[in-house]
Automatic annotation (TrEMBL):
<feature type="region of interest" description="Disordered">
    <location>
        <begin position="1"/>
        <end position="51"/>
    </location>
</feature>
<feature type="compositionally biased region" description="Basic and acidic residues">
    <location>
        <begin position="28"/>
        <end position="41"/>
    </location>
</feature>
<dbReference type="Pfam" id="PF02201">
    <property type="entry name" value="SWIB"/>
</dbReference>
<feature type="region of interest" description="Disordered">
    <location>
        <begin position="110"/>
        <end position="129"/>
    </location>
</feature>
<dbReference type="InterPro" id="IPR003121">
    <property type="entry name" value="SWIB_MDM2_domain"/>
</dbReference>
<dbReference type="InterPro" id="IPR036885">
    <property type="entry name" value="SWIB_MDM2_dom_sf"/>
</dbReference>
<feature type="domain" description="DM2">
    <location>
        <begin position="225"/>
        <end position="299"/>
    </location>
</feature>
<protein>
    <submittedName>
        <fullName>Chromatin remodeling-related protein</fullName>
    </submittedName>
</protein>
Length: 451
């Protein structure tokens, strides 16, 4: 390994610009810096819209504008109410009961009776048998197919799902297939893979020229996940199968009926009544947060659907005499539409609405400023003398307040300004005599105390 060598930094020397390369000018660098500064600067929140009565006073001669404000208020109220209803519905499970119909069949190929019934040809001789690919060797193909039955509701039947999306796992157990003769094995399993596309059915292909009995075990994928409730919990809550939430809700009702909560501490559950059958025997009470753990011990996977079937090779195609309907519960498709509707409020449409509201707010504040200027100039043109006197009085009062020129300012003082003291009529008011009397009495009291 060669040692690393570091060279001292060399001074930058301006050299000739290579052909075809462009050096950014000062204006481009300044524009980029301003853009980065604008991106880092926190965005100011849009000021709230003026109240409706102020909006109405801005444009008093436009009934269409007032009608538009009423329609906007009604629309905003309706959208908020609908959004709250959708959020409430999204928090509750919306399930629809449907039926999944399963069909089982099998086909046979290259059987001896099939070769005898066919006409003599190259395909019937032993030279047509390929031991590597299995072509020409007697065998059969088992097919397991399924589809969701129509409910008669166009909204529910619009969405089509593959059969494999309803199955968590599928197992086929074959009989009378010994290992030396049939090395493939007697059990075939299917489990969904992460990137595997949904399937309409499953096929199991094997070699053989004899009938085979098999058991098809289907584990249905419920949504939300269902469990089989084991005794004694199933006997206590009178429920054999249900979701985890349903089981916990039933146990909580039992706790309320038995009064198992401690009166002093509501987070403690006492082991009373039927709770003795599901809680440990070596404790008298448990914390409330441990109740789900004890309930989960009595939850198991639901019983699978078992379909017995005999694979027959004495005919080209054999179909099971019965089809099997499996009751399942699915999520209502309207829930996904609700979710997309909620996301649309924050999507491109929502951003466009916010931009329009910002533009309306800017125009309203601009209109308010224009109205204030118009009222200012209109009052000046109506009576210039009174306008100037009032304006000077207001300016003087504001100036005194800013500079603090107030007489008696304090906890018990008033707000008498120097402008008021310049007027002679102020000293003829009724409170002047009382103020002089109070002032002279306090002065005489101070002189008496000095003596």
């Amino acid at each position: 390994m060669s040692a690393l060598s570091f060279e001292p930094p060399r001074p930058l020397v301006a050299g000739p610009t290579p052909q075809g390369s462009s050096v950014p000018n000062v204006a481009d660098l300044k524009r980029r810096a301003d853009a980065e500064l604008e991106a880092r600067r926190p965005k100011q929140q849009r000021p709230p819209l003026p109240p409706p009565h102020i909006l109405a006073s801005l444009v008093p001669d436009s009934p269409a504008f007032l009608d538009l404000l009423k329609v906007e208020q009604k629309l905003d109220w309706t959208l908020l109410r609908k959004k709250a209803e959708i959020n409430d519905a999204m928090g509750k499970p919306i399930r629809v009961k449907r039926a999944l119909r399963v069909f089982v069949s099998n086909t046979a190929h290259d059987q001896q009776w099939q070769k005898e019934t066919n006409e003599a040809g190259p395909s019937s001789g032993p030279e047509a048998v390929d031991m590597d690919s299995g072509k020409g060797i007697a065998g059969w193909v088992l097919r397991i197919e399924g589809r969701l039955l129509d409910s008669g509701n166009a909204r529910l039947d619009k969405t089509r799902r593959k059969f494999s999306t309803f199955v968590r796992s599928a197992i086929v157990e074959l009989d009378n297939r010994e290992a030396p003769t049939f090395p493939e094995g007697n059990i075939v399993e299917w489990h969904p893979q992460g990137l595997q596309a949904p399937l309409d059915g499953f096929e199991v292909s094997r070699r053989g020229d004899q009938d085979v009995n098999c058991r098809i075990v289907l584990h249905v994928n419920h949504y939300p996940e269902k469990f089989r409730i084991l005794p004694p919990l199933a006997e206590i809550i009178a429920m054999k199968e249900g979701t985890r939430a349903e089981a916990m809700s039933a146990v909580w009702k039992l706790v309320k009926v038995l009064g198992a909560q401690d009166k002093d501490d509501g987070s403690i559950l006492k082991r009373v009544g039927d709770l003795e059958k599901i809680l440990p025997a070596n404790v008298d009470s448990i914390p409330f947060h441990q109740l789900p753990e004890h309930v989960t011990r009595f939850l198991s996977h639901p019983e699978p659907v078992i379909i017995p079937y005999t694979i027959r090779v004495d005919r080209d195609f054999h179909f099971h005499q019965k089809c099997f309907d499996i009751p399942i519960e699915l999520e209502d498709p309207v829930k996904s539409k609700m979710s997309s509707l909620l996301t649309s409020f924050d999507g491109e449409e929502g951003k466009e609405i916010v931009k329009l509201e910002d533009k309306v707010a800017e125009m309203l504040y601009f209109t308010r400023d224009l109205k204030q200027k118009r009222d200012f100039l209109e009052s000046f043109s109506t009576n210039p003398q009174a306008f100037i006197q009032n304006w000077l009085a207001v300016q003087a009062r504001d100036l005194d307040q800013m500079l603090g020129y107030q007489i008696g300012a304090g906890p018990n003082g008033g707000s008498v300004t120097e402008e008021d003291l310049r007027r002679s009529d102020m000293f003829t008011l009724p409170w002047v005599d009382e103020a002089i009397t109070v002032h002279e009495a306090s002065r005489m009291e101070q002189e008496r105390r000095r003596m």
